[in-house]
Design a protein that fits this description.
Layout lengths: L6 H71 L17 E7 L5 E3 L6 H14 L5 E6 H4 L1 H4 L3 H20 L8 H22 L1 H13 L3 E4 L16 E9 L1 H5 L4 E8 L2 E10 L2 E7 L1 H9 L11 E5 L23 E4 L8 E5 L5 H71 L5 H33 L7 E4 H18 L3 E5 L6 E4 L1 H17 L6 E9 L2 E8 L22 H4 L7 H11 L3 E6 L5 E8 L3
Length: 626
Protein backbone atom coordinates (compact mmCIF):
# COMPACT_ATOMS: atom_id res chain seq x y z
CA UNK A 1 0.00 0.00 0.00
CA UNK A 2 1.47 3.35 -1.06
CA UNK A 3 2.01 5.79 1.79
CA UNK A 4 1.35 9.51 1.31
CA UNK A 5 3.61 11.78 3.38
CA UNK A 6 2.36 14.95 5.00
CA UNK A 7 4.01 18.33 4.55
CA UNK A 8 5.55 18.19 8.05
CA UNK A 9 7.06 14.78 7.30
CA UNK A 10 8.53 16.00 4.00
CA UNK A 11 10.05 19.06 5.69
CA UNK A 12 11.41 16.87 8.50
CA UNK A 13 13.03 14.41 6.03
CA UNK A 14 14.53 17.28 4.02
CA UNK A 15 16.05 18.86 7.12
CA UNK A 16 17.44 15.54 8.44
CA UNK A 17 18.76 14.04 5.22
CA UNK A 18 19.60 17.12 3.11
CA UNK A 19 19.81 20.46 4.88
CA UNK A 20 21.44 19.26 8.11
CA UNK A 21 24.27 17.31 6.37
CA UNK A 22 24.88 20.25 4.02
CA UNK A 23 24.99 22.66 6.97
CA UNK A 24 27.40 20.46 8.92
CA UNK A 25 29.63 20.06 5.85
CA UNK A 26 29.53 23.82 5.24
CA UNK A 27 30.43 24.61 8.85
CA UNK A 28 33.30 22.13 8.83
CA UNK A 29 34.57 23.59 5.55
CA UNK A 30 34.44 27.12 6.91
CA UNK A 31 36.09 26.05 10.16
CA UNK A 32 38.82 24.28 8.19
CA UNK A 33 39.42 27.38 6.07
CA UNK A 34 39.66 29.58 9.16
CA UNK A 35 41.98 27.14 10.92
CA UNK A 36 44.13 26.87 7.81
CA UNK A 37 44.30 30.65 7.71
CA UNK A 38 45.28 30.68 11.39
CA UNK A 39 47.87 27.97 10.73
CA UNK A 40 49.39 29.95 7.85
CA UNK A 41 49.36 33.08 10.01
CA UNK A 42 51.02 31.22 12.88
CA UNK A 43 53.66 29.81 10.54
CA UNK A 44 54.30 33.33 9.28
CA UNK A 45 54.47 34.73 12.82
CA UNK A 46 56.87 32.00 13.88
CA UNK A 47 59.12 32.62 10.87
CA UNK A 48 59.14 36.36 11.59
CA UNK A 49 59.90 35.76 15.26
CA UNK A 50 62.73 33.39 14.34
CA UNK A 51 64.19 35.84 11.83
CA UNK A 52 64.00 38.72 14.31
CA UNK A 53 65.42 36.59 17.11
CA UNK A 54 68.37 35.42 15.01
CA UNK A 55 69.14 39.00 13.95
CA UNK A 56 69.01 40.24 17.54
CA UNK A 57 71.31 37.40 18.62
CA UNK A 58 73.87 38.28 15.93
CA UNK A 59 73.83 41.95 16.92
CA UNK A 60 74.23 41.09 20.63
CA UNK A 61 77.15 38.77 19.89
CA UNK A 62 78.87 41.39 17.79
CA UNK A 63 78.47 44.02 20.49
CA UNK A 64 79.99 41.65 23.04
CA UNK A 65 82.87 40.81 20.69
CA UNK A 66 83.46 44.49 20.01
CA UNK A 67 84.47 44.95 23.68
CA UNK A 68 87.78 43.16 23.02
CA UNK A 69 88.32 45.11 19.79
CA UNK A 70 87.71 48.44 21.47
CA UNK A 71 89.82 47.49 24.51
CA UNK A 72 92.72 46.63 22.20
CA UNK A 73 92.35 50.04 20.53
CA UNK A 74 92.40 51.75 23.92
CA UNK A 75 95.55 49.82 24.92
CA UNK A 76 97.25 50.93 21.72
CA UNK A 77 96.04 54.50 22.05
CA UNK A 78 97.44 54.97 25.56
CA UNK A 79 100.67 53.01 25.00
CA UNK A 80 103.98 54.83 25.34
CA UNK A 81 104.78 54.07 21.72
CA UNK A 82 101.70 56.08 20.57
CA UNK A 83 103.12 59.41 21.56
CA UNK A 84 100.98 61.36 19.09
CA UNK A 85 97.84 59.70 20.44
CA UNK A 86 96.58 58.50 17.05
CA UNK A 87 93.89 55.80 16.79
CA UNK A 88 95.07 52.41 15.52
CA UNK A 89 91.70 51.02 14.45
CA UNK A 90 92.59 48.49 11.75
CA UNK A 91 89.42 49.51 9.95
CA UNK A 92 87.35 49.75 13.13
CA UNK A 93 86.21 53.35 13.25
CA UNK A 94 83.44 53.20 15.91
CA UNK A 95 85.40 55.52 18.22
CA UNK A 96 84.56 59.20 18.09
CA UNK A 97 85.93 60.86 21.27
CA UNK A 98 88.56 59.32 23.61
CA UNK A 99 88.88 60.10 27.32
CA UNK A 100 90.67 58.71 30.40
CA UNK A 101 90.21 58.92 34.19
CA UNK A 102 92.50 58.15 37.08
CA UNK A 103 91.51 55.96 40.04
CA UNK A 104 89.92 58.95 41.78
CA UNK A 105 87.69 59.61 38.73
CA UNK A 106 89.61 62.71 37.71
CA UNK A 107 89.76 63.42 33.97
CA UNK A 108 93.36 63.03 32.83
CA UNK A 109 92.71 62.89 29.08
CA UNK A 110 92.30 64.93 27.05
CA UNK A 111 94.53 67.42 28.85
CA UNK A 112 92.38 70.19 27.43
CA UNK A 113 89.13 70.31 25.49
CA UNK A 114 89.81 71.52 21.97
CA UNK A 115 87.04 70.52 19.56
CA UNK A 116 83.34 71.37 19.61
CA UNK A 117 82.45 67.68 19.92
CA UNK A 118 84.63 67.36 23.04
CA UNK A 119 83.07 70.47 24.56
CA UNK A 120 79.58 69.06 23.97
CA UNK A 121 80.51 65.59 25.25
CA UNK A 122 82.08 66.73 28.51
CA UNK A 123 79.35 69.30 29.10
CA UNK A 124 76.76 66.53 29.26
CA UNK A 125 78.91 63.74 30.79
CA UNK A 126 81.47 65.45 33.08
CA UNK A 127 79.46 65.15 36.30
CA UNK A 128 78.72 61.50 35.63
CA UNK A 129 82.32 60.61 34.76
CA UNK A 130 83.50 62.43 37.88
CA UNK A 131 81.20 60.07 39.84
CA UNK A 132 79.07 62.94 41.14
CA UNK A 133 75.85 62.23 39.20
CA UNK A 134 73.67 59.18 38.74
CA UNK A 135 72.28 58.17 35.36
CA UNK A 136 69.83 55.41 34.33
CA UNK A 137 71.79 52.20 33.86
CA UNK A 138 70.11 49.82 31.41
CA UNK A 139 69.96 46.06 31.86
CA UNK A 140 68.21 43.08 30.31
CA UNK A 141 65.29 41.85 32.42
CA UNK A 142 66.11 38.27 31.44
CA UNK A 143 69.72 38.65 32.58
CA UNK A 144 68.76 40.06 35.99
CA UNK A 145 66.09 37.46 36.76
CA UNK A 146 67.37 34.45 34.79
CA UNK A 147 67.19 32.20 37.86
CA UNK A 148 63.54 33.12 38.58
CA UNK A 149 62.58 32.70 34.92
CA UNK A 150 64.26 29.32 34.50
CA UNK A 151 62.38 27.53 37.24
CA UNK A 152 60.92 24.52 35.44
CA UNK A 153 62.89 21.30 35.19
CA UNK A 154 62.71 21.30 31.42
CA UNK A 155 64.26 24.76 31.21
CA UNK A 156 67.03 23.80 33.62
CA UNK A 157 67.81 20.73 31.53
CA UNK A 158 67.84 22.88 28.41
CA UNK A 159 70.23 25.32 30.08
CA UNK A 160 72.52 22.54 31.28
CA UNK A 161 72.55 20.98 27.82
CA UNK A 162 73.27 24.32 26.16
CA UNK A 163 76.17 25.04 28.53
CA UNK A 164 77.64 21.57 27.97
CA UNK A 165 77.39 22.03 24.19
CA UNK A 166 79.14 25.38 24.41
CA UNK A 167 81.92 23.92 26.58
CA UNK A 168 82.37 21.01 24.19
CA UNK A 169 82.76 23.43 21.28
CA UNK A 170 85.41 25.40 23.16
CA UNK A 171 87.32 22.26 24.17
CA UNK A 172 87.37 21.17 20.53
CA UNK A 173 89.00 24.44 19.50
CA UNK A 174 92.76 23.74 19.40
CA UNK A 175 93.53 27.35 20.05
CA UNK A 176 91.87 27.21 23.48
CA UNK A 177 93.32 24.31 25.45
CA UNK A 178 92.05 25.38 28.87
CA UNK A 179 89.12 27.80 29.28
CA UNK A 180 89.33 30.06 32.32
CA UNK A 181 86.62 29.47 34.91
CA UNK A 182 85.47 33.08 34.75
CA UNK A 183 84.99 32.83 30.98
CA UNK A 184 83.04 29.60 31.37
CA UNK A 185 80.80 31.31 33.93
CA UNK A 186 80.32 34.24 31.56
CA UNK A 187 79.28 31.94 28.72
CA UNK A 188 76.94 30.01 31.01
CA UNK A 189 75.32 33.26 32.05
CA UNK A 190 75.01 34.31 28.41
CA UNK A 191 73.29 31.03 27.49
CA UNK A 192 70.97 31.36 30.49
CA UNK A 193 70.09 34.92 29.47
CA UNK A 194 69.31 33.83 25.92
CA UNK A 195 67.01 31.01 27.09
CA UNK A 196 65.30 33.28 29.64
CA UNK A 197 64.78 35.92 26.94
CA UNK A 198 63.07 33.37 24.68
CA UNK A 199 60.82 32.28 27.51
CA UNK A 200 59.80 35.86 28.28
CA UNK A 201 59.07 36.50 24.59
CA UNK A 202 56.84 33.42 24.31
CA UNK A 203 55.13 33.48 27.71
CA UNK A 204 53.22 36.71 28.49
CA UNK A 205 52.30 35.48 31.98
CA UNK A 206 55.92 34.95 33.01
CA UNK A 207 56.83 38.27 31.43
CA UNK A 208 54.12 40.06 33.41
CA UNK A 209 55.23 38.39 36.64
CA UNK A 210 58.92 39.29 36.18
CA UNK A 211 58.08 42.89 35.20
CA UNK A 212 56.01 43.26 38.36
CA UNK A 213 58.94 41.98 40.43
CA UNK A 214 61.31 44.41 38.72
CA UNK A 215 58.98 47.37 39.36
CA UNK A 216 58.68 46.41 43.01
CA UNK A 217 62.47 46.59 43.25
CA UNK A 218 62.63 50.07 41.73
CA UNK A 219 63.55 49.16 38.17
CA UNK A 220 61.98 51.29 35.42
CA UNK A 221 60.80 49.62 32.20
CA UNK A 222 61.76 51.10 28.86
CA UNK A 223 59.25 51.69 26.07
CA UNK A 224 59.27 50.36 22.53
CA UNK A 225 59.42 53.11 19.91
CA UNK A 226 57.47 53.70 16.71
CA UNK A 227 57.51 56.55 14.25
CA UNK A 228 55.04 59.22 15.32
CA UNK A 229 55.55 60.89 11.96
CA UNK A 230 54.24 57.78 10.25
CA UNK A 231 51.59 56.53 12.67
CA UNK A 232 49.45 58.89 14.77
CA UNK A 233 50.14 58.58 18.48
CA UNK A 234 46.43 57.92 19.14
CA UNK A 235 46.66 54.61 17.32
CA UNK A 236 49.92 53.49 18.97
CA UNK A 237 50.08 50.01 20.47
CA UNK A 238 53.12 50.14 22.73
CA UNK A 239 54.93 46.81 23.15
CA UNK A 240 56.58 45.87 26.42
CA UNK A 241 60.36 46.11 26.42
CA UNK A 242 62.60 43.64 28.21
CA UNK A 243 65.03 46.45 29.07
CA UNK A 244 64.85 48.10 32.48
CA UNK A 245 66.91 50.85 34.10
CA UNK A 246 68.07 51.91 37.55
CA UNK A 247 69.89 55.07 38.57
CA UNK A 248 73.55 54.40 39.38
CA UNK A 249 76.87 56.23 39.77
CA UNK A 250 79.73 55.57 37.40
CA UNK A 251 81.64 53.71 40.11
CA UNK A 252 78.65 51.38 40.71
CA UNK A 253 78.39 50.53 37.03
CA UNK A 254 82.06 49.61 36.53
CA UNK A 255 82.47 47.85 39.86
CA UNK A 256 84.11 44.39 39.54
CA UNK A 257 84.22 44.63 35.75
CA UNK A 258 87.10 45.14 33.32
CA UNK A 259 85.19 46.63 30.38
CA UNK A 260 81.73 47.44 29.17
CA UNK A 261 79.31 49.83 27.53
CA UNK A 262 77.28 52.56 29.17
CA UNK A 263 74.29 53.76 27.14
CA UNK A 264 72.67 57.03 28.16
CA UNK A 265 70.20 59.50 26.73
CA UNK A 266 71.20 63.11 26.29
CA UNK A 267 68.30 65.29 25.16
CA UNK A 268 66.48 62.03 24.27
CA UNK A 269 69.33 61.07 21.95
CA UNK A 270 71.16 57.82 22.61
CA UNK A 271 74.91 57.96 23.31
CA UNK A 272 77.07 54.86 23.82
CA UNK A 273 80.15 55.17 26.04
CA UNK A 274 82.71 52.37 26.05
CA UNK A 275 85.06 52.02 29.05
CA UNK A 276 87.85 49.62 30.10
CA UNK A 277 90.45 49.34 32.88
CA UNK A 278 94.07 49.91 31.81
CA UNK A 279 96.67 49.54 34.60
CA UNK A 280 96.36 52.78 36.54
CA UNK A 281 93.60 54.39 34.57
CA UNK A 282 90.07 53.99 33.22
CA UNK A 283 90.03 54.57 29.49
CA UNK A 284 86.91 55.19 27.47
CA UNK A 285 85.42 56.48 24.26
CA UNK A 286 82.20 57.88 22.87
CA UNK A 287 81.10 55.71 19.95
CA UNK A 288 80.23 57.17 16.58
CA UNK A 289 76.45 56.79 16.29
CA UNK A 290 76.35 56.66 12.49
CA UNK A 291 79.07 54.01 12.27
CA UNK A 292 77.40 51.98 15.01
CA UNK A 293 74.13 52.01 13.05
CA UNK A 294 75.91 50.84 9.93
CA UNK A 295 77.56 48.02 11.85
CA UNK A 296 74.27 46.92 13.42
CA UNK A 297 72.47 47.02 10.06
CA UNK A 298 75.13 44.82 8.49
CA UNK A 299 73.66 41.90 10.45
CA UNK A 300 70.09 42.53 9.25
CA UNK A 301 68.52 40.23 6.63
CA UNK A 302 66.98 41.35 3.35
CA UNK A 303 64.97 44.47 4.07
CA UNK A 304 61.81 43.71 2.09
CA UNK A 305 60.12 40.83 0.33
CA UNK A 306 56.51 40.11 -0.61
CA UNK A 307 55.68 38.94 2.93
CA UNK A 308 57.38 41.35 5.33
CA UNK A 309 59.61 44.38 5.86
CA UNK A 310 62.33 44.16 8.55
CA UNK A 311 63.99 47.35 9.68
CA UNK A 312 65.94 49.00 12.49
CA UNK A 313 63.89 51.46 14.54
CA UNK A 314 65.89 53.90 16.66
CA UNK A 315 64.92 55.69 19.87
CA UNK A 316 62.97 58.27 17.85
CA UNK A 317 60.92 55.60 16.11
CA UNK A 318 62.64 56.26 12.79
CA UNK A 319 63.17 53.29 10.40
CA UNK A 320 66.78 53.71 9.34
CA UNK A 321 67.11 51.31 6.47
CA UNK A 322 63.68 51.69 4.93
CA UNK A 323 62.64 55.23 4.05
CA UNK A 324 59.64 53.97 2.03
CA UNK A 325 57.82 52.98 5.24
CA UNK A 326 56.10 56.37 5.28
CA UNK A 327 54.47 55.49 1.93
CA UNK A 328 52.57 52.56 3.43
CA UNK A 329 48.90 52.88 4.31
CA UNK A 330 48.29 54.01 7.90
CA UNK A 331 46.61 50.83 9.10
CA UNK A 332 49.68 48.80 8.10
CA UNK A 333 52.30 51.02 9.75
CA UNK A 334 52.11 49.42 13.17
CA UNK A 335 54.75 46.68 13.34
CA UNK A 336 53.51 43.10 13.48
CA UNK A 337 56.51 42.07 15.59
CA UNK A 338 59.27 43.87 17.50
CA UNK A 339 62.23 42.98 19.66
CA UNK A 340 64.90 44.80 21.64
CA UNK A 341 68.32 44.51 20.05
CA UNK A 342 70.38 44.79 23.24
CA UNK A 343 70.54 46.57 26.56
CA UNK A 344 73.73 48.16 25.18
CA UNK A 345 71.62 50.10 22.65
CA UNK A 346 68.30 50.65 24.50
CA UNK A 347 65.58 52.22 22.42
CA UNK A 348 66.81 50.52 19.27
CA UNK A 349 64.58 47.68 18.12
CA UNK A 350 64.27 45.38 15.19
CA UNK A 351 60.72 45.66 13.80
CA UNK A 352 58.77 43.75 11.16
CA UNK A 353 56.00 45.36 9.10
CA UNK A 354 53.50 44.10 6.56
CA UNK A 355 53.98 45.58 3.09
CA UNK A 356 51.02 46.81 1.08
CA UNK A 357 49.47 43.86 -0.73
CA UNK A 358 51.12 41.30 1.55
CA UNK A 359 51.24 37.98 -0.29
CA UNK A 360 50.46 36.02 2.87
CA UNK A 361 47.47 38.15 3.83
CA UNK A 362 46.18 38.03 0.27
CA UNK A 363 46.57 34.23 0.27
CA UNK A 364 44.72 33.86 3.58
CA UNK A 365 41.94 36.23 2.51
CA UNK A 366 41.57 34.47 -0.84
CA UNK A 367 41.33 31.02 0.75
CA UNK A 368 38.90 32.07 3.43
CA UNK A 369 36.82 34.13 0.99
CA UNK A 370 36.71 31.25 -1.51
CA UNK A 371 35.57 28.73 1.07
CA UNK A 372 33.18 31.21 2.69
CA UNK A 373 31.72 32.05 -0.71
CA UNK A 374 31.29 28.36 -1.47
CA UNK A 375 29.69 27.78 1.92
CA UNK A 376 27.29 30.70 1.44
CA UNK A 377 26.42 29.51 -2.06
CA UNK A 378 25.87 25.98 -0.76
CA UNK A 379 23.66 27.20 2.07
CA UNK A 380 21.69 29.45 -0.26
CA UNK A 381 21.25 26.56 -2.68
CA UNK A 382 20.06 24.35 0.16
CA UNK A 383 17.63 27.02 1.34
CA UNK A 384 16.43 27.65 -2.21
CA UNK A 385 15.99 23.90 -2.70
CA UNK A 386 14.09 23.67 0.56
CA UNK A 387 11.86 26.55 -0.45
CA UNK A 388 11.16 25.07 -3.87
CA UNK A 389 10.48 21.60 -2.46
CA UNK A 390 8.24 22.91 0.30
CA UNK A 391 6.43 25.29 -2.05
CA UNK A 392 5.78 22.83 -4.86
CA UNK A 393 5.11 19.94 -2.50
CA UNK A 394 2.64 22.08 -0.60
CA UNK A 395 1.07 23.16 -3.85
CA UNK A 396 0.80 19.59 -5.05
CA UNK A 397 -0.63 18.45 -1.73
CA UNK A 398 -3.21 21.22 -1.80
CA UNK A 399 -3.99 20.46 -5.43
CA UNK A 400 -4.33 16.77 -4.61
CA UNK A 401 -6.67 17.60 -1.74
CA UNK A 402 -8.70 19.85 -4.02
CA UNK A 403 -8.85 17.17 -6.69
CA UNK A 404 -9.99 14.64 -4.10
CA UNK A 405 -12.68 17.06 -2.96
CA UNK A 406 -13.51 17.73 -6.61
CA UNK A 407 -13.99 14.03 -7.32
CA UNK A 408 -16.17 13.66 -4.25
CA UNK A 409 -18.21 16.73 -5.21
CA UNK A 410 -18.57 15.61 -8.84
CA UNK A 411 -19.63 12.16 -7.70
CA UNK A 412 -22.21 13.70 -5.42
CA UNK A 413 -23.35 16.17 -8.06
CA UNK A 414 -23.75 13.38 -10.63
CA UNK A 415 -25.42 11.02 -8.19
CA UNK A 416 -28.05 13.50 -6.98
CA UNK A 417 -29.67 14.39 -10.36
CA UNK A 418 -29.37 10.80 -11.59
CA UNK A 419 -31.11 9.55 -8.46
CA UNK A 420 -33.88 12.12 -8.88
CA UNK A 421 -34.32 11.33 -12.58
CA UNK A 422 -34.37 7.59 -11.89
CA UNK A 423 -36.88 7.92 -9.03
CA UNK A 424 -39.26 10.18 -10.91
CA UNK A 425 -39.03 8.08 -14.07
CA UNK A 426 -39.89 4.88 -12.15
CA UNK A 427 -42.84 6.59 -10.52
CA UNK A 428 -44.11 7.83 -13.87
CA UNK A 429 -43.58 4.38 -15.41
CA UNK A 430 -45.56 2.65 -12.66
CA UNK A 431 -48.29 5.32 -13.02
CA UNK A 432 -48.03 6.20 -9.35
CA UNK A 433 -48.29 9.91 -10.09
CA UNK A 434 -51.54 11.76 -10.54
CA UNK A 435 -52.14 13.57 -13.82
CA UNK A 436 -52.03 16.89 -12.00
CA UNK A 437 -48.45 16.18 -10.75
CA UNK A 438 -47.10 14.59 -13.93
CA UNK A 439 -46.22 17.97 -15.41
CA UNK A 440 -44.25 18.87 -12.27
CA UNK A 441 -42.37 15.56 -12.39
CA UNK A 442 -41.52 16.02 -16.06
CA UNK A 443 -40.23 19.54 -15.34
CA UNK A 444 -38.11 18.21 -12.47
CA UNK A 445 -36.63 15.52 -14.70
CA UNK A 446 -35.90 18.17 -17.35
CA UNK A 447 -34.25 20.50 -14.81
CA UNK A 448 -32.14 17.72 -13.36
CA UNK A 449 -31.15 16.72 -16.89
CA UNK A 450 -30.02 20.30 -17.60
CA UNK A 451 -28.10 20.34 -14.32
CA UNK A 452 -26.44 17.07 -15.23
CA UNK A 453 -25.57 18.37 -18.67
CA UNK A 454 -24.11 21.56 -17.18
CA UNK A 455 -21.99 19.56 -14.77
CA UNK A 456 -20.66 17.26 -17.48
CA UNK A 457 -19.96 20.25 -19.73
CA UNK A 458 -17.94 21.92 -16.95
CA UNK A 459 -15.85 18.82 -16.47
CA UNK A 460 -15.28 18.48 -20.22
CA UNK A 461 -14.50 22.18 -20.55
CA UNK A 462 -11.96 21.93 -17.72
CA UNK A 463 -10.28 19.03 -19.49
CA UNK A 464 -10.16 21.07 -22.72
CA UNK A 465 -8.93 24.06 -20.72
CA UNK A 466 -5.89 22.12 -19.45
CA UNK A 467 -5.11 21.06 -23.04
CA UNK A 468 -5.48 24.65 -24.28
CA UNK A 469 -8.19 23.84 -26.87
CA UNK A 470 -11.41 25.44 -25.65
CA UNK A 471 -11.75 28.52 -27.88
CA UNK A 472 -11.46 28.84 -31.63
CA UNK A 473 -13.06 30.78 -34.49
CA UNK A 474 -12.53 34.30 -33.10
CA UNK A 475 -14.53 36.99 -34.91
CA UNK A 476 -16.23 40.31 -34.25
CA UNK A 477 -19.36 39.65 -32.20
CA UNK A 478 -22.22 41.86 -30.92
CA UNK A 479 -22.49 41.81 -27.14
CA UNK A 480 -25.94 43.45 -27.01
CA UNK A 481 -27.44 40.45 -28.80
CA UNK A 482 -25.52 37.90 -26.70
CA UNK A 483 -26.64 39.51 -23.43
CA UNK A 484 -30.26 39.61 -24.70
CA UNK A 485 -30.17 35.91 -25.59
CA UNK A 486 -28.73 34.96 -22.22
CA UNK A 487 -31.33 37.09 -20.45
CA UNK A 488 -34.13 35.37 -22.38
CA UNK A 489 -32.69 31.96 -21.49
CA UNK A 490 -32.63 32.67 -17.74
CA UNK A 491 -35.64 34.99 -17.45
CA UNK A 492 -38.29 32.33 -16.86
CA UNK A 493 -36.02 30.32 -14.54
CA UNK A 494 -35.16 33.35 -12.38
CA UNK A 495 -38.69 34.77 -12.19
CA UNK A 496 -40.23 31.40 -11.37
CA UNK A 497 -37.74 31.16 -8.48
CA UNK A 498 -38.88 34.57 -7.21
CA UNK A 499 -35.87 36.60 -8.41
CA UNK A 500 -35.84 40.21 -9.49
CA UNK A 501 -33.96 39.79 -12.79
CA UNK A 502 -33.14 42.71 -15.11
CA UNK A 503 -31.12 43.50 -18.22
CA UNK A 504 -29.57 46.93 -18.81
CA UNK A 505 -28.22 47.56 -22.34
CA UNK A 506 -26.72 50.74 -23.85
CA UNK A 507 -28.28 52.45 -26.84
CA UNK A 508 -25.23 51.91 -29.04
CA UNK A 509 -24.26 48.47 -30.28
CA UNK A 510 -21.02 47.22 -28.64
CA UNK A 511 -18.67 44.86 -30.43
CA UNK A 512 -15.65 42.81 -29.38
CA UNK A 513 -13.44 40.27 -31.08
CA UNK A 514 -14.25 36.88 -29.58
CA UNK A 515 -16.40 33.79 -29.66
CA UNK A 516 -20.17 33.95 -29.00
CA UNK A 517 -20.46 30.50 -27.42
CA UNK A 518 -17.52 31.19 -25.11
CA UNK A 519 -18.96 34.48 -23.90
CA UNK A 520 -22.36 32.86 -23.39
CA UNK A 521 -20.76 30.10 -21.33
CA UNK A 522 -19.10 32.66 -19.06
CA UNK A 523 -22.35 34.55 -18.52
CA UNK A 524 -24.25 31.33 -17.89
CA UNK A 525 -21.73 30.31 -15.21
CA UNK A 526 -21.94 33.71 -13.52
CA UNK A 527 -25.73 33.81 -13.57
CA UNK A 528 -25.98 30.23 -12.32
CA UNK A 529 -23.70 31.10 -9.38
CA UNK A 530 -25.74 34.26 -8.68
CA UNK A 531 -28.90 32.19 -8.42
CA UNK A 532 -27.23 29.36 -6.46
CA UNK A 533 -25.65 31.59 -3.80
CA UNK A 534 -28.52 34.03 -3.26
CA UNK A 535 -30.25 33.71 0.08
CA UNK A 536 -33.06 36.02 1.21
CA UNK A 537 -32.55 38.95 -1.21
CA UNK A 538 -33.22 37.46 -4.62
CA UNK A 539 -32.01 40.12 -7.05
CA UNK A 540 -29.75 39.70 -10.10
CA UNK A 541 -28.88 42.33 -12.70
CA UNK A 542 -27.07 41.85 -16.04
CA UNK A 543 -25.50 45.17 -17.17
CA UNK A 544 -23.62 46.07 -20.36
CA UNK A 545 -21.89 49.43 -20.97
CA UNK A 546 -18.79 50.99 -22.50
CA UNK A 547 -16.11 53.03 -20.75
CA UNK A 548 -12.95 54.55 -22.25
CA UNK A 549 -12.89 52.29 -25.32
CA UNK A 550 -13.61 49.28 -23.15
CA UNK A 551 -16.71 47.13 -22.92
CA UNK A 552 -17.87 46.09 -19.44
CA UNK A 553 -20.30 43.28 -18.61
CA UNK A 554 -21.52 43.12 -15.01
CA UNK A 555 -23.40 40.41 -13.15
CA UNK A 556 -24.58 41.93 -9.85
CA UNK A 557 -26.45 40.02 -7.15
CA UNK A 558 -27.56 40.42 -3.55
CA UNK A 559 -26.29 37.02 -2.48
CA UNK A 560 -24.10 35.88 0.38
CA UNK A 561 -21.11 37.83 -0.96
CA UNK A 562 -17.42 36.93 -1.21
CA UNK A 563 -14.85 38.25 1.31
CA UNK A 564 -12.18 40.51 -0.16
CA UNK A 565 -9.39 38.07 0.77
CA UNK A 566 -10.96 35.48 -1.55
CA UNK A 567 -11.63 37.90 -4.44
CA UNK A 568 -8.74 36.50 -6.53
CA UNK A 569 -8.73 32.94 -5.25
CA UNK A 570 -12.30 32.21 -6.43
CA UNK A 571 -10.98 32.03 -10.01
CA UNK A 572 -8.62 29.14 -9.18
CA UNK A 573 -9.66 25.60 -10.05
CA UNK A 574 -11.24 23.52 -7.27
CA UNK A 575 -11.41 26.53 -4.94
CA UNK A 576 -14.53 27.06 -2.85
CA UNK A 577 -14.96 29.74 -0.21
CA UNK A 578 -14.83 28.14 3.23
CA UNK A 579 -18.02 29.67 4.53
CA UNK A 580 -21.02 28.21 6.30
CA UNK A 581 -23.36 29.53 3.63
CA UNK A 582 -21.44 28.16 0.65
CA UNK A 583 -20.94 24.87 2.44
CA UNK A 584 -24.69 24.31 2.19
CA UNK A 585 -24.50 24.51 -1.59
CA UNK A 586 -22.91 21.76 -3.63
CA UNK A 587 -20.42 22.60 -6.32
CA UNK A 588 -17.21 21.49 -8.03
CA UNK A 589 -15.20 24.73 -7.88
CA UNK A 590 -14.72 24.74 -11.67
CA UNK A 591 -17.24 27.24 -12.97
CA UNK A 592 -15.36 30.45 -12.11
CA UNK A 593 -11.98 28.91 -13.03
CA UNK A 594 -13.33 28.02 -16.50
CA UNK A 595 -14.88 31.49 -16.85
CA UNK A 596 -11.64 33.25 -15.89
CA UNK A 597 -9.62 31.16 -18.35
CA UNK A 598 -12.08 31.84 -21.19
CA UNK A 599 -12.05 35.59 -20.54
CA UNK A 600 -8.25 35.60 -20.41
CA UNK A 601 -7.99 33.72 -23.71
CA UNK A 602 -10.38 36.27 -25.27
CA UNK A 603 -8.01 39.04 -24.18
CA UNK A 604 -10.22 40.32 -21.38
CA UNK A 605 -10.15 40.59 -17.61
CA UNK A 606 -12.56 39.30 -14.97
CA UNK A 607 -12.72 40.50 -11.37
CA UNK A 608 -14.83 40.07 -8.26
CA UNK A 609 -15.96 42.90 -5.96
CA UNK A 610 -18.15 43.29 -2.90
CA UNK A 611 -21.36 45.12 -3.71
CA UNK A 612 -22.40 48.03 -1.53
CA UNK A 613 -25.42 46.95 0.47
CA UNK A 614 -24.52 43.27 0.22
CA UNK A 615 -23.83 40.82 -2.55
CA UNK A 616 -21.23 40.48 -5.28
CA UNK A 617 -20.42 42.13 -8.61
CA UNK A 618 -18.51 40.20 -11.29
CA UNK A 619 -16.99 42.49 -13.93
CA UNK A 620 -15.80 41.32 -17.35
CA UNK A 621 -13.81 43.87 -19.33
CA UNK A 622 -13.02 43.54 -23.07
CA UNK A 623 -11.37 45.90 -25.51
CA UNK A 624 -14.04 47.42 -27.73
CA UNK A 625 -13.86 46.51 -31.41
CA UNK A 626 -15.17 49.12 -33.89
Amino acid sequence: MKKNFSMKQIVFFYIIFVFLPISILALFSLRYALREGQFLQQQFNDSIATEIGQTATLVQKDLKDSEEELRAIMVGFFSKENSDKSLQTDGNNLIDIVFALDDSYKIIYPPEVSSYKEVEFFASNREFLLNRQQIPYFQNLAAIYAAEILQTESMELALSSAVEDRQAENEYDNSIMVEPQSQTFSKSKEVATNIATEKLQKNPDVKKQIRAKAESEGLVSSQMNYSYSVTPQSSMQQEESLIVSQNKFFSEIINSKVAGFIPRFVNDRLEIIFWCRLDDKIAGALLDRTKLQERVLSFFPEIENDKRIITLVDEFGYPHNFDRLSELSIEKNLPIATRDLSEIIPGWQIAAYLPDGSALQAQIRTRVATVAGGVIALMLSALAGAFMIIYFTGYQLKLAAKKTSFVANVSHELKTPLTTIRLYTEMLKDRRVSESNQQLYFQTILDEGKRLTSLINNVLDFSKLEKGAIISDLRTIELNQICSEIYTTFEMEFKSAGFEFSLNLPEEILFIKGNSDAVKQVLMNLLSNAKKYSDEQKSVHLNLYSKAEQVVIEVADRGIGIPEKYAQKVFKEFFRVDDSLTAKTNGTGLGLAISASIVQKLGGKISCHRREGGGTIFKIIFTESK
